[in-house]
């Protein structure tokens, strides 16, 4: 007999053993049932209670002793029909609250669409995200990289690019004019990286990094911060800006 079906319709292993043992024993006390089912006496009574709740076991008392008996197997069909009705009722109740749950999810996504990260650690966190969101061969782009940066950033970017190379992620970088050409030379020598100068001598007020559906805007100031926006339309818009500047940018490093 395939006993797995009992598990599939909601019986525990113990309930299956006790019910099948009762079918074979007929009307019986807990002692023989414990032996036949191979379920401990302490558990048998608990299981019998559950089977009685399912309508699959009944009992009578003879001379102050309880005798248990399994209901006919066809009663399992009644049990399944009852479960099906309960399920349909639960489904109807769930259908009522489903729109509320979906609205809550949308609101949560909207709230998390933009996040602000502060300090040097926060800016590092924003950059770490790209390693979990980009796969090998994919790319991020950067526009408006400042010409002068603190030493801690120079060290961090070097470490980040080593990790980028190891992950097989590519990048295109647009540096502000006035940046020491050694920085561009260094990046251009690294695998999967192409660095150029901005085509016009503007000092962008912030750097912008874009990949997939994510845009990160860094604001260099005494209180460092980065704004991360996860939105495909926003990312696509900034990619268009990048591509326009990239086409105008100089392919050769200028003095």
Structural summary, described in words:
There is one protein chain. The protein contains 9 helices and 9 strands. The longest helix has 38 residues. Helix 7 links the parallel strand 4 and strand 5. 53% of the residues lie in helices and 20% in strands. It is of the alpha+beta class. It folds into 2 domains: 73 residues, Arc Repressor Mutant, subunit A (Orthogonal Bundle), CATH 1.10.10.10; 137 residues, Endonuclease, Chain A (2-Layer Sandwich). The strands form 2 sheets. It has a 7-stranded mixed beta sheet with strand order 3-9-8-7-4-5-6.
Shape: rod-shaped
Low-pLDDT windows of residues: none
Quaternary structure state of the chains depicted: single chain
The H-and-E topology, N to C, reads as: HHHHEEHEHEHEHEEEEH
Examine the secondary-structure arrangement and name the CATH architecture of the largest domain: 2-Layer Sandwich
* CATH class placement of the largest domain: Alpha Beta
Count of individual domains:
2
Q: How many strands in all?
A: 9
Features:
Arc Repressor Mutant, subunit A, 2 domains, alpha+beta, rod-shaped, Endonuclease, Chain A, single chain
Layout: helices, strands, pairs:
Blueprint lengths: L3 H5 L4 H13 L4 H8 L3 H13 L3 E6 L2 E6 L4 H38 L1 E5 H15 L5 E7 L5 H17 L2 E6 L5 H9 L3 E5 L9 E5 L2 E6 L5 E6 L1 H17 L7
Parallel strand pairs: 4-5, 5-6
Antiparallel strand pairs: 1-2, 3-9, 4-7, 7-8, 8-9
